[in-house]
């Protein structure tokens, strides 16, 4: 079983790597997060931005599961399935855990309210209601998908939850929500999904028993992990491989391969410390060249040089069996490429990731690696990459501590070197 997880701030290109590996998978599972994700997949069917549906959807033989660790905006999911079906992609193989929690319209309203009221301390969330949905889950106010099966009770639950939610919304000057409308939206979407809402544990158990090829698709990256990331600028779940076991319902010992996905430089959307961040024309150059805009929100991504401290830390937490480096082609026109190997914090040099309050004071220590100064997208064999590009990959391996198993040199599935 293989877990594909992000080793930086998110947006590492996990969608592309999962799509590549999913060609030979029997089961692909999302184990955390919701439609805050934005996984861009470019293949023979076109270009897709997936938010909830696992990137295995393009393999008609793979079952695509949203595990109990995810939070699901059912109307959003139906919209995504309709978009895929409109492009001729069958969604018959999608299954959603009946234990997953619902993201309801009041979670979206509370996400936006919370961000607004934080003012300058805002987190920069995607505004998809993911944080409030997980808060309700942890606070034992969440509503699981299975609850839509009993319409009367579901409507009562929504009305009850709205008593406190609406009081908060009104206290801060926002419009209250109507319980009937909220329930209607969800019930209608649930009806569209029909019997695709299931207990996913037997599916996973069956896959384990058959020794089937299972892919666990992470969202976001280690730096946004609830426990290990740059709290409070984190998401409300665990994107680490450890989270995959719980969120998918897979006993941890079955996960034998963990692929850490790293972009050849760094990007982030949302707030929080990002030591190698560029600004001004240098940032614009990389952002435009690499088209770094959020797949979910369209926000311009913050961009910076490769920061080995973050994926090294991610490796300590995930024990990567290999790294997949994405977007190496985007560094093609630099003569010398700054590469951060350590931080200086209060006069001390460290290669360890400190907690947020200290990371905010970190300045990056750079080496300068030679650029290759040419396009590499047409390269078909890793051995044929320019020497400098190979040296760049070697430096990633040395500083992170795990071998590079895959290299992305273009957005298409085929632009992947092993
Ligand atoms: P939330 O997950 O919407 O609550 O946002 C929390 C933090 O994670 C914010 O900094 C978001 O910008 C970031 N984030 C959430 N989802 C993604 C993603 O798919 N890619 C990159 N960043 C994300």
Q: What are the salient characteristics of this protein?
A:
single chain; 418 residues; alpha/beta; Adenylosuccinate Synthetase, Chain A, domain 1; Adenylosuccinate Synthetase, subunit A, domain 2; Adenylosuccinate Synthetase, Chain A, domain 3; 3 domains; ten-stranded mixed sheet; four-stranded mixed sheet; 12 helices; 20 strands; binds inosinic acid
Name of the CATH superfamily of the largest domain: Adenylosuccinate Synthetase, subunit A, domain 1
- Total discrete domains: 3
Bound molecules: inosinic acid
- Can you list the strand order of the major beta sheet? 9-7-5-2-10-1-11-15-19-20
CATH architecture of the largest domain: 3-Layer(aba) Sandwich
Poorly predicted spans: none
Radius of gyration: 21 Å
The total strand number stands at: 20
Proportion in helices: 25-40%
Per CATH, the class of the largest domain reads: Alpha Beta
Instruction: Give the end-to-end Cα distance, rounded to a whole number of Å.
Output: 19 Å
Q: What is the molecular shape?
A: globular
